[in-house]
Amino acid sequence: MLKERFLAAPAFRDTYLTAYRELYQELYVDGAALRALDAAVATATQAGATVTDDQLRSTITNRAAALATNEDLAGS
Description:
mainly alpha
C-alpha cells in the first residue's frame, strides 16, 4: 500500500507524523471537530431543521479517545 511505502522513508514519516500530531491536537484535543459540529447543528436548527447529532458526536468522542492511546501521538 502506498501509505506504508511512504511511511517507510524516515524523512516522509517524520513529516507525516508532525502533520498527524498537529491535526490531532487541533481537531480533537483543542475541540475543533466538536465546535464544527455544534456550528453545523446551530445553522441547521436556525434554518428550521430538526437535528439529532448524538451519533456523530459519539463518533468524534470515540475517535478522540482511541487516538489518545495511539503511540504515534503520545506526547503530542
